[in-house]
Specification:
The chain is α/β, with parallel strands linked by helices and 365 residues long. Helices cover 39% and strands 19% of the residues. It is built from 14 helices and 16 strands. It has helices at residues 46-51, 61-66, 70-75, 79-83, 95-100, 127-137, 155-175, 193-205, 222-235, 250-257, 268-274, 306-310, 313-321, 325-351, and strands spanning 3-9, 16-22, 25-29, 31-33, 57-60, 89-92, 105-107, 112-115, 122-125, 141-143, 182-187, 210-213, 242-244, 263-265, 277-280, 283-286. The strands form four sheets. An eight-stranded parallel β-sheet has the order 4-14-13-12-11-10-6-5. Helix 7 (155-175) links the parallel strand 10 (141-143) and strand 11. Helix 7 (155-175) packs parallel to helix 8 and helix 8 (193-205) packs parallel to helix 9. The longest helix is centred in the last third of the chain and has 27 residues, at 325-351. It binds one RNA strand of 72 nucleotides through helix 5, helix 11 and helix 14.
Length: 365
RNA sequence: UCCGGUGUGGCGCAAUGGUAGCGCAAUCGGCUGUUAACCGAUGUGUUACAGGUUCGAGUCCUGUCACCGGAG
């Protein structure tokens, strides 16, 4: 099981500095967890992840169940051994895939029927099955099987999805047998403050070792996401970790850390890197743009990642334009480093109890 | 030199005589619990040149030039 300790509270915001202690290591919070859907953080090795300071990564139940299969991974010693990552892992339950691949799925009280995006074969995942798969994978933190509410959604549908998520959370908890895995509950409730409150009360009532805020960053306006996060975060138990699922930009991480969120994950640094979108101090650049074709500077002069210490924008642009596989690696390494460093700066400010003196906006250099 | 073939955006190619398009490249944009090295948008043309036939020619005819193949 995990232990969570709040070391320090920020007097300038609701942020807190914490340590999440898991069977496979400690995690400094607030933290960002790189996404490794298919038992790999795309384009990075274990050594890369360790070198940039990642203390925990994500895996995905849906993807690993379909390929290569949770049974296979279990027979090979579990997900950690399989992918040679000895530090903590959190697996998402597959609930998000029900939401994002809704054309292939059918939701009932019992669970979700879906067709594989790989070969079209039919499958069924229930809350019990999601727990069983995650137990086979062996992650340190596992997630309840939920139904993220789409945006926009009316009050009735949001209520329906919230209630189903609560019933499924209870079933997940009842199904859990493993003693060294911690199951987190997930709050839904869409963009309705009273439903967020209702969901929080129901999920907290079930008593999980950690709580996630789900169903955000699904296309809603930024102020809605912030309002829902702020409201929900404040309702969650003070001494349990709070995980905002799927968020976000560096700005989001700062804003939501200051609302008391402890854990984040997002595909943005990794996916965007592969597509040429690079995070730099205060903004971003698109390395594919022609203006960088002869630019001898590093991606970010303030960055001390391996890529920035060794390669120019001109070279990196050449690599990505030429479709070279090294581009994926070097650019992902930079963005992932940027995110880890960003969280480090957030933690330092809380530690020193000074206001957050840095910011990031999605603007070009 | 003769015979045959081909000349259409940067490149590779389409277009029963009826508004010249497609792929790639290029340029730009998007990406928030990864179906994503992905997706989308946008340029660029005296259709080799000069004539002719036709209501209308990338398309048919004549000539010139260029390139490719075969023969010598």
């Amino acid at each position: 099981m995990i232990k969570f300790e709040v070391l320090k509270k920020h007097s300038h915001s609701s942020a807190r500095l914490g340590i999440l202690d898991t069977p496979r290591g400690k995690i400094d919070t607030p933290c960002f967890m790189p996404v490794g859907t298919q038992a790999t953080v795309k384009a990075l090795t274990r050594e890369n992840l360790e070198s940039i300071g990642a203390q925990i990564i994500l895996g995905n139940t849906y993807h690993l169940y379909l390929r290569p299969g949770h049974d296979l991974i279990q027979s090979l010693g579990g997900l950690h051994k399989f992918m040679n990552w000895t530090h903590p892992i959190l697996t998402d339950s597959g609930g998000y895939q029900v939401f994002s691949m809704n054309k292939l799925t059918k939701v009932t009280e019992e669970g979700v029927k879906f067709k594989s995006h790989i070969d079209g074969s039919s499958h069924f995942i229930s809350p019990e099955k999601a727990v069983e798969i995650q137990e086979a994978l062996g992650a340190d933190i596992i997630m309840a099987f939920d139904e993220p509410t789409p945006y926009p959604a009316d009050l009735a549908n949001t209520q329906k999805s919230l209630s189903l998520t609560t019933r499924w959370a209870k079933r997940c908890k009842d199904a859990l047998q493993s003693k060294n895995q911690s199951l987190f509950g997930i709050i839904q409730g869409g963009m309705y403050p009273n439903l967020r409150k209702e969901s929080s009360e129901q999920i907290i009532e079930l008593d999980f070792p950690g709580y996630a805020i789900g169903g955000l960053s699904v296309g809603e306006e930024k102020h809605l996401m912030n309002d829902m996060t702020e409201l929900t975060s404040a309702l969650l138990p003070e001494l349990k970790p709070r995980y905002l699922m799927g968020v976000g930009t560096p700005e989001d991480l700062l804003t939501c850390s200051s609302m008391g969120v402890d854990m984040f994950d997002c595909v943005m640094p990794t996916r965007n890197a592969r597509n040429g979108y690079l995070f730099i101090t205060g903004g971003k650049i698109n390395i594919r743009n022609s203006q960088y074709h002869n630019d001898p500077k590093p991606i970010d002069s303030n960055c001390s990642c391996y890529t920035c210490k060794n390669y120019s924008r001109a070279y990196l642009r050449h690599l990505i334009m030429a479709g070279e596989i090294l581009a994926m690696h070097l650019l992902t390494l930079h963005n992932s480093y940027f995110y880890q460093n960003w969280m480090k700066n957030i933690r330092s400010a809380i530690e020193e109890d000074v206001p957050f003196s840095f910011s990031w906006q999605e603007t070009d250099e």
